[in-house]
Design goal:
RNA binding; four-stranded antiparallel β-sheet; single chain; about 5% helix; Eukaryotic translation initiation factor 5A; five-stranded antiparallel β-sheet; mainly beta; translation elongation factor activity
């Protein structure tokens, strides 16, 4: 082989998935599952017995983790469903602009400026604004990420 050959090495995405497949009967209370393309937290599960027409059915009562809406779903226990990968990270709040976009920084030095103050629950955005306006304390927000969506879900004051 000669040294004349050039090899192009390209970087590629690892192909990380936003969700993982799981059998409906394996989903647990307090866990997460996707219903109609939305990431939901499982509030309760009731399982009906196997009848003459086949599989036992799992009845899921869930709440959307971003907007708080309750969603019900029924899936045969042996059928597949998907579970979202939910990640929570803490960020330091640096600024809130006039359009409610926030500037955030984490311990690694990364920044985010594409997240708005939350719309759910109703009072959370105003509580964050009030805490930020106080100016005496550092404000740390918790950002939840799932299914390509991210939103602030909590905050705390740090003295």
């Amino acid at each position: 082989m000669s040294d004349d050959n050039e090899y192009a090495i390209e970087n590629a995405d690892a192909g990380a998935s936003l969700e993982i497949p799981m059998e409906a009967g394996q989903v647990k209370k307090g866990g997460y599952m996707n219903i109609k393309g939305r990431p939901c937290k499982v509030l309760s599960i009731s399982v009906s017995k196997t009848g003459k027409h086949g599989h036992a059915k799992c009845n899921f009562e869930t709440v959307d983790i971003f907007n708080g809406k309750k969603i019900m779903d029924m899936v045969p226990s042996t059928h597949g469903t998907t579970v979202p990968i939910v990640k929570k990270e803490e960020w330091d709040l640096m600024n809130i602009d006039d359009e409610d976009f926030v500037s955030l920084f984490n311990d690694a030095g990364d920044s985010k400026e594409d997240i708005k103050l939350p719309t759910y629950p109703d009072t959370l955005a105003q509580e964050i604004r009030d805490c930020w306006a106080d100016g005496d304390n550092q404000v740390v927000v918790t950002v939840q990420t799932a299914m390509g969506m991210e939103e602030i879900i909590a905050y705390k004051k740090v003295d």
